[in-house]
Amino acid sequence: MNELLTVENVSKTFGSVRAVNEISMEVAKGEFLAIQGQSGSGKTTLLSLLSGLERADCGTISLDGKDITGMNEDELALFRRENVGIVFQFFNLIPTLNAVENIGLPLFPTKVRKKEVLDKAKEVAERLSLGHRLDHYPNELSGGEQQRVAIARALINEPKIIFADEPTGNLDTETGGKIIELLKSLNQEGGLTVVMVTHDEAIAQASNRRIQLKDGGILNE
After folding, report:
1. What are phi and psi of 73, to 5 degrees?
2. Does 3-220 carry CATH code 3.10.50.40?
3. Where would I find the H helices in the chain?
4. Distance between CA atoms of residues 142 and 150, nearest Å
């Protein structure tokens, strides 16, 4: 197994609640992993730990051979920008930016010139069939279009891995199915590693491996 992500004995507690309890797991390069579980099972917290948005209380998380649990905030922010793409359930688009500006947002803090950022954002948008919506603002886009913009934003830094937190949870069934097909295509045709959280069994079937969480721990694989 050619591991991209290695997790060893990771735990996270909020107050008196152990949200993630001594989890160990591995994700291979090019894998599409679905993390399933009921509300409160710890799946979103686990995804936040894996992506570096939250810090573990104990244990280690290594991504592409680098231990992210030992990084300070600046190092972690830079590492995420260069290696990780994150897709959220509620899109998290900036309402005052149009589609192409939202897509290019992760590159604006870099030394890349604005024109080059926007050119690259347009290129990614075309790949996701958004070329005709570049000048539109989030409130002018459908839910599916907003989620595709969010996925394009996650792809613009050419990440090694995409973390998707309930990416269809705010969409109707048909539109959600199209988003999953898009993620599946990026995985199968582009070789992109995808780790997705979902409570939906039908959505999880798009993955090639699944794990179940219960009470913060892995129930089975």
Report:
1. -60, -40
2. no
3. 43-50, 73-83, 99-104, 114-127, 143-155, 173-188, 201-204
4. 12
